Amino acid sequence: MNLTVYILFQARKNGLLDQGLVHCIDSSELAVERQQLLATLIIKGQKIRIYDDIDCDCGVRRKKRDKSNYVVGYRMHTLSVINPETGRCIPLMSLLAAANHHDSQFLGPLIGLGQAIGLDLRLISADEAYNDTDGAVLAQTGVHIVTPPSAKVYLPENVDPQTLEVTCDEYCEIGMDYVGIEGQCHEFKCGAQPGECSRADVCPQYRHIPFDGGYFQPIRHGSDAVSQALEIRKNCERPFNLFKNREGLEEVRVRSQDGLLARVTFTTMANLLIELVETRREIKVPAKQQRLPFAA
């Protein structure tokens, strides 16, 4: 980890980690192809599988055309940084766990680790598995999480599904103005002009909508900034493609979580060093394209 911090320092020194960048968190499975199931136990109603690599387990794989829906091995959770101007995504650090662990368990630890070594984390774009549903991560770390709205979360009552305009109740036709965050809720106030609403005397003229995993996350949906943060998250696939195809992490050749995590860490450092070399490389202009200086 100390070596990782040193390399990250050099990356910042060379302008790879300048302010104004967006961070993202995503995961990818690392399958242990040659794995043998030794035993299956039922403990407190749960099925426990034991493989010859005792640290790994069976988890659900993201849908791929040519592979099974299940994977035996590990899942790598990676914190990366994206330059919003170029879309270039650079992996910074990873945590590793058996494939059956849910992604949400690694949001807090990755943020905490990043802040502990001095990363300026402000906004993280991730998929819905890392959703900060109740705002707990924001309260503990001060980091805003933006994820796509979960299809399992229903839209609150009296919210237009197309425009996300909020009204006070089913009898109100005037949209409310957004005030800000109050506790773990979004606060809205009546948007009617004086004398415009005939129900002003009987209407509370304010409304609180609790945080959820849908459109009313701690950063609520509906703005161009949120849409851009979600769109740029697609660049998160780049680090995993580099890890697996260029650095050879696709083939898991170790037989323990600690051993694989060490390999993942060195792979991340190698990737950062390659990025550093690219920033220091001088572009040589062919001799035919070189311009001679004008005479004085």
Describe this structure in words.
- With 296 residues, this protein is an alpha+beta fold.
- The protein folds into two domains: 2-151 and 220-280, no CATH class; 154-211, no CATH class.
- 24% of the residues lie in helices and 25% in strands.
- Helix 1 (2-13) packs parallel to helix 6 (257-280).
- The longest helix has 24 residues, at 257-280.
- The protein is globular, with a radius of gyration of 24 Å.
Helix-strand makeup class? alpha+beta
- Helix-strand topology string: HEEEEEEHEHEEEEHHH
Q: Which overall shape is indicated by the principal axes computed on the Cα atoms?
A: globular
Total number of helices? 6
Strand content of the residues, in percent? 25-35%
Fraction in helix: 10-25%
Largest sheet: 6 strands, mixed
How many strands? 11
Estimate the mean pLDDT confidence.
84
Distance between the termini: 56 Å
Q: What radius of gyration results from the CA coordinates? A: 24 Å
Which residue ranges are poorly predicted, with pLDDT under 50 across at least 5 consecutive positions?
289-296
Number of domains: 2
